Amino acid sequence: MKRVLVVTGGGDCPGLNAVIRAIVKRASKEKDWEVIGSIEAYNGILREPTEIMILDEKAVSGIHFQGGTIIKTTNKGGPFAWPIKNSDGTWSAVDRSEEMLRKMQYLGIDAVISIGGEGSQRISQLLYEKGCNIIGVPKTIDNDLSATDTTFGFQTAVQIATEAVDKLVTTAASHNRVFILEVMGRYAGWIGLNAAIAGGAEI
Q1: Exposure letters 32-70 (e unless 16+ CB within 10 A, then b)
Q2: What pLDDT shows up at residue 187?
Q3: Is the pLDDT of residue 203 over 80?
Q4: What CATH architecture applies to the domain 3-138?
């Protein structure tokens, strides 16, 4: 039986649990594979003791109705920049990727499915270059990943931003004011652009 590791990295967004559930359903029913989740991205594998979760059909039942991710997420740490505290109280980042790959081999992990955005997929690429069998699932509300038209989480972010625009428009008109609405997006402006279009922006 093959064993697949699932990790969720970066910020949370709508749809994470639905993706985890779909992976488990497909792997267990169609492939007879075992799926495990690493708690807080790859950090669960790197910690002592290891923090993993068996993802069977019982574990994922009904989770697609829940926000967030049942295996937790983080944008801190990771196999290539694990934080360690120095004797003088400062912090350094060390590369623990080879150690992590050995632990994954010990755990019998045949492949990794990494659900995440730009940072997570950068880690995926580096692990792939070290010989890891890995699939990257594009997840980011920013919609800033190449080679894909849209990323899950983006449409919900636009919807929420558009709702905020709709509520501000009447208040602005009532007081003859101009409002500035700041939205997320990191280095990409897709949420702002699409929310502006949906809200009828004139500039």
Answers
A1: ebbbbbbbbbbbbbbeeeebbbebeeebbeebeeeeebb
A2: 86
A3: no
A4: 3-Layer(aba) Sandwich (3.40)
